[in-house]
From TrEMBL:
This is DUF171-domain-containing protein. Residues 1-72, 136-168, 428-451 are annotated as: Disordered. InterPro entries: Alpha/beta_knot_MTases (IPR029028), NA-bd_OB-fold (IPR012340), Put_MeTrfase-C9orf114-like (IPR003750), tRNA_m1G_MTases_N (IPR029026). PANTHER family: CLASS IV SAM-BINDING METHYLTRANSFERASE-RELATED, METHYLTRANSFERASE C9ORF114-RELATED. Belongs to the class IV-like SAM-binding methyltransferase superfamily. Residues 1-36, 55-68, 136-162 have a biased composition (Basic and acidic residues). The lineage of its organism: Eukaryota, Sar, Stramenopiles, Ochrophyta, Bacillariophyta. Residues 42-54 have a biased composition (Basic residues).
Length: 451
């Protein structure tokens, strides 16, 4: 029975195959296919257009994601605000990635609260960093005549000895990352060559400060680097790269190539045809003194807590010194906070907030051999000895956390004291039209190529 079924299936299969061959023969040797109705070709859509549509439809923010321009007080600010932080806090982080992130938090806090100077001081309590950094071996690093493994084993590779090594000093590491964060993105390639300390700098959140200007922004002030080129004319000035596409800025004087400077550019000068614009070199404090625009911070290193005050860059030093400690004799929550200082002096020119490390300011003073006072008398160094977080819910407050708390709690006090300032017209405050749905910043993307 099974043999008969198999024979029938084979015969049926042979018959179908014969019919198929007959149809192919009748159609001229080609397999006949059903005709499809002609359809117009679909228009091709570029990938950039797809991304653009997706950005519009998905994740749209009704009131805009970020501000087009950083809010400006529109009044002169002649005073400065400094903070002092021990570099030893970096050595407590387990990996270089965490150390970089920690310093990035400090840089962000400083930018948000208009800090003009960051002092990285040695509290004599830190330990050396033990970074783990391995250079990646590339094919173009090898000797073209052969492999260089034997040279590495013999110790004859001179290139290996000339490579930059990661910093073991936590203070130098912190200072380098702080300077990198503050530098506008289009100037970083000029002032920060490749260094092991900057291995994870690309992961940092950008400051997005007013002096981090985009290429198409018509900003009145810009940071730039002096090039070796000069302008044309009777009294040519140096040409400065200010991050403007396809154009340099000719300043009013000749400066040494390679230095960083602040340039004032008239808004009407933008769009002028030619390879250069006209500008004027001004002080980095000019934007702040003119209308209160925040223009970044300076980074300074101090060898001890005493050097913070002795090496102050301002004439007369700091006239308002605030020390923060959980053992402070006054709290920000007290009703009488700040009244005693306000009665004695109605204004300050240069204020500084000093924060301690893991052990606090008292231990820093005890460890400083150049000081003739003990740690329990640390408050004598300051005009105010403040507890910024009374009844804290944790046994300890980390320095990066104390920085944000201190700046937030002390800000109303610092700006409530009358400050010597020039009278400026009050401009309109930001409205909803000043916000956009664009990306937060272009800093985290790859840098623009130089022309």
């Amino acid at each position: 029975m099974e043999e008969e079924d198999a024979a029938k299936k084979a015969a049926r299969k042979a018959e179908l195959k014969k019919q198929k061959q007959q149809r192919i023969k009748e159609s001229g040797g080609k397999r006949p296919r059903p005709e499809k109705a002609a359809q117009p070709p679909k228009p091709k859509k570029s990938k950039s257009k797809k991304r653009k549509d997706a950005h519009k439809n998905e994740g749209h923010h009704k009131f805009g994601r970020v501000m087009e321009h950083v809010p400006c007080p529109n009044k002169s600010r002649m005073s400065t605000l400094s903070i002092a932080i021990p570099g030893s806090i970096v050595s407590n982080a387990q990996t270089q990635e965490l150390r970089t992130h920690l310093v990035g938090q400090i840089a962000r806090a400083a930018a948000i609260y208009h800090v003009d100077e960051i002092v990285v001081f040695n509290d004599r309590l830190g330990k050396e960093i033990k970074p783990r950094f391995n250079y990646r071996k590339r094919d173009n690093d090898r000797d073209r005549d052969g492999d260089d493994k034997d040279d590495d084993k013999k110790g004859n590779n001179d290139e290996k000895g000339t490579r930059l090594q990661p910093s073991t000093d936590p203070h130098a590491f912190m200072a380098r990352i702080l300077q990198y964060c503050e530098c506008p993105q289009y100037l970083r390639r000029h002032f920060f060559p490749m260094h092991p300390d900057l291995q994870f700098a690309g992961l940092l959140a950008p400051l997005d400060a007013p002096h981090h200007v985009r290429a198409l922004d018509r900003s009145e002030f810009r940071e730039g680097v002096v090039t070796e080129k000069k302008g044309k004319g009777d009294n040519p000035g140096s040409l400065v790269n200010c991050g403007i596409r396809n154009q340099l800025v000719e300043i009013d004087r000749v400066l040494a190539p390679g230095i960083r400077c602040t340039v004032h550019i008239e808004p009407k000068a933008y769009g002028t045809p030619g390879k250069s614009l006209k500008g004027k070199v001004v002080s980095p404090s000019e934007p702040r003194e003119r209308d209160g625009t925040y223009w970044g911070y300076q980074t300074r290193m101090a060898s001890s807590i005493k050097a913070i005050f002795d090496e102050a860059p301002f004439p007369g030093g700091y006239d308002l010194k605030v020390g923060t400690s959980e053992r402070g004799d006054i709290s920000v929550d007290d009703e009488s906070f700040g009244s005693s200082y306000t009665k004695e002096r109605q204004s300050f020119k240069h204020a500084i907030i000093v924060l301690g490390g893991v052990a606090g300011i008292e231990e820093c003073v005890d460890a400083d051999e150049t000081m003739d006072i003990s740690g329990d008398k640390s408050k004598s160094l300051f005009d105010m000895w403040v507890n910024v977080c009374q009844f804290q819910g944790s046994r300890t407050i980390r320095t990066e956390e104390a920085l944000l708390i201190s700046l937030a709690r002390l800000r109303p006090f610092l700006f409530s004291i009358p400050i010597e300032s020039k009278k400026k017209e009050r401009k309109n405050l930001p409205t909803t039209v000043d916000f956009s749905d664009d990306e937060v910043s272009e800093e985290s993307s790859s840098e623009e190529e130089e022309d």
